[in-house]
Hints:
The model is unreliable at about 80-95 and about 105-115 (pLDDT under 50). The protein has a two-stranded antiparallel ribbon with strand order 1-2. It has one domain (about 5-115). The protein contains seven helices and two strands. About 50% of the residues lie in helices and about 10% in strands. It has about 120 residues and is mostly helical. Helix 1 crosses helix 5 (about 65-75). A hairpin with a 2-residue loop joins strand 1 and strand 2. The protein is globular.
Amino acid sequence: xxxxxxxxxxxxxxxxxxxxxxxxxxxxxxxxxxxxxxxxxxxxxxxxxxxxxxxxxxxxxxxxxxxxxxxxxxxxxxxxxxxxxxxxxxxxxxxxxxxxxxxxxxxxxxxxxxx
Length: 115
């Protein structure tokens, strides 16, 4: 998928920014939904916390690899904290609403993801 979670940061680390730029940017609500689901789902499809998902990523990709470097350079590394701060509850992921005509995602980390 061209625009998986943190794709712009990983493309930069791999020297593939020009190639990624050949694809049109996805709808921001859809991108928010993909990011939310990716960050709250394990590679096996089980629900996980964002903290557990990041720990899993770092356990599979050692420092200095494009994926590890991309996560460290991107706002994904602070995603759980920004989510907690935005909800004020100490936990609680972004919310995805399936609405007639599309998807609406409330993602406190959205501003971070657009950098």
